[in-house]
Write a structure and sequence with these properties.
The chain is α+β, with helices and mostly antiparallel strands. The protein has one domain: Glutaredoxin (3-Layer(aba) Sandwich). The protein has a 7-stranded mixed β-sheet with strand order 2-1-9-8-5-6-7, with helices on one face. Strands 3-4 form a two-stranded antiparallel ribbon.
């Protein structure tokens, strides 16, 4: 069944994704509460901030976000069940080349570090069997949850670009947000800085 979202939401999402989807350079923000204008590009000097489209759909990520959804493998995923560990919440899509490129490194990080968990939130309109077929060709060790772009998790801001990664501290609070591709070294550096 195809749902038709409100036209202003569609236009806002399309404009936002067209401006910043799959950026090749990594941008980081000190925290989710910092305004987007303070984001800095890691590989180039800071540039003028992009204009912010103030729409009713604009929202921020909760300080202590919750997430309870079904994973593609049929298991239940509950972010709160991972308290006590660092959790990497990675918004991505199958059509996003930088997203696909970072998947093996995030998978290795999830498999090799006892104190770090990763969850992939596939932010696209894709059916379960199609996602499962994609994961056969691009396997990962962490759970994948398909997120409806027209009904994203309430405690997370609507992504302004992909990939978008939130680093959740062991206390459940958002410690850092990365806009653009992220590496295991980036994540481990933020964890070391926070301890």
């Amino acid at each position: 069944m195809i749902r038709t979202p409100p036209l202003p939401l569609v236009l806002a999402l399309a404009a936002s994704l067209a401006l910043s989807a799959c950026k090749p350079a990594q941008e980081t923000a000190p925290s989710s509460s910092a305004p987007p204008a303070q984001a800095q590009t890691a590989t180039a000097p800071a540039t003028a901030p992009e204009p912010i489209d103030e729409t009713p759909a604009e929202r921020t990520t909760a300080e202590v976000p919750t997430l309870k959804m079904k994973a593609v493998d049929g298991s239940d995923y509950d972010l709160a069940a991972h308290r006590g560990k660092w959790v990497v919440v990675n918004f991505w899509a199958t059509w996003c080349a930088p997203c696909r490129k970072e998947m093996p490194e995030l998978s290795a990080l999830h498999a090799m570090r006892n104190n770090i968990e990763v969850v992939g939130l596939a932010y696209e309109d894709i059916e379960g069997p199609d996602m499962q077929a994609f994961l056969v060709k691009h396997p990962v060790t962490y759970p994948i949850v398909v997120v409806d772009p027209f009904d994203p998790p309430a405690d997370f801001a609507i992504p302004r670009g992909l990939p978008l990664t939130h680093l959740i501290a062991p206390d459940g609070k958002v410690a850092h947000t990365f806009l653009g591709p992220v590496t295991a070294a980036d994540i481990e550096q933020q964890i070391a800085a926070a301890q």
